[in-house]
Amino acid sequence: MQLLDKRAFEKTDATGLGTVYEENDEFTGGSAGMDLVIASTLRSRLRGLLSSRVCAQGEVLMLVPCRSIHTFGMREPIDLAFVDSSGLILSSHRCVASARRLKDKRAILVLERRSTAGKQWLEEGQRIVIAPAPAIPIKPYL
């Protein structure tokens, strides 16, 4: 089963484009899922969570296409998950500190957020679904 075609997000950087759910409709953090901020251009993927405006409200940043991330310049730790095209979480990392580089050659996208104590995160082996958001105004992420 194909979760998504990474070409569907080419040159699309915006907030409010979707929600991540666990495949059985209940994300471990609650059935409401996680709101996404999409980063698919080279510039936005390189910046990731470095911008203080990105994911300030607890959203998750989806880097697509992406197989490798770095945390150089990060002031706070992040949680991240490498995901394949079927929605399978290939690997999950919590509280990744600054000056680290992680990669997974099988991934087509990475989900990341600012690390939050006490909040659950995706685990290796889980399968997720990315559902499109309802028609809402989209704010560009530059």
What does this structure look like?
With 142 residues, the chain is mainly beta. It has a single domain (6-132), classed as Sandwich (Jelly Rolls), CATH 2.60.120.1140. The protein has one helix and nine strands; from the N terminus they run ββαβββββββ. The protein has one helix at 42-47; strands spanning 14-22, 34-39, 60-63, 68-70, 78-83, 89-96, 101-103, 109-114, 128-132. Strands 6-5-8-3-2-1-9 form a seven-stranded mixed beta sheet. Strands 4-7 form a two-stranded antiparallel sheet.
Write the layout of secondary structure elements.
Elements: E1 14-22, E2 34-39, H1 42-47, E3 60-63, E4 68-70, E5 78-83, E6 89-96, E7 101-103, E8 109-114, E9 128-132
Parallel strand pairs: 2-3
Antiparallel strand pairs: 1-2, 1-9, 3-8, 4-7, 5-6, 5-8
Give a short synopsis of this structure.
The chain has 142 residues and is mainly β. The protein is built from 1 helix and 9 strands, in the order E-E-H-E-E-E-E-E-E-E.
